């Protein structure tokens, strides 16, 4: 129906071409449009400029497109988890345009809002500002950054209705909402698709007007965890015994 497509390949049909610019949501591998990325890999398009906070990891996310050398340039904030990226960049095979993370988010937001450029203090006097216009306002120095607009945005959402209204879940929201507004066409992969009217209006994060196509993820879709950090919990006290803290409190009473 309407915006819902049967799979990632059909949802991207007619949208992909060599040399295009793609925004890809996610932070680390949280909230990444992994199924759509795999479809882009299978399409074989190349010489891509990809705007994303990071470059995925070696065997997941945008790392898949780096392995197949389909990406020519990355506009990113952090790429430290991807050895393939580092190898290609140091060999001169991949271009990189680094951005402070907040600046990258604002460049995308500005592009979606139709703002061609803005001034920020971040990066003034550093390599980030090289070749860019700078200006002084009220005794403070600023560097001009351009808004970003892509040919295509691929994003991940937790829930959607048939009109394309999207809801994101917790940290998986990250860059997805701003990217959804800043591309000529936005395609979303969604964990749960519900009927129109089942999402409360106040709960919508991205209005459906920004979303042109969607796919429903299969029930067995697995979201990977990039790094799992846990701590050992103390063993529970034996039945009838007192914890040291309680015993100590009683002895001081």
From TrEMBL:
Keyword NAD attached: no
GO molecular function terms noted in the UniProt entry: transferase activity
SMART domains reported for this sequence: CoA_trans
Superkingdom assignment: Bacteria
Region annotated Disordered, chain positions: 226-253
Residue stretches of biased makeup (Low complexity): 235-253
Record's keyword terms, sorted: Transferase
Protein name: CoA transferase subunit A
Organism: Falsiroseomonas frigidaquae
Lineage, highest ranks first: Bacteria, Pseudomonadati, Pseudomonadota, Alphaproteobacteria, Acetobacterales
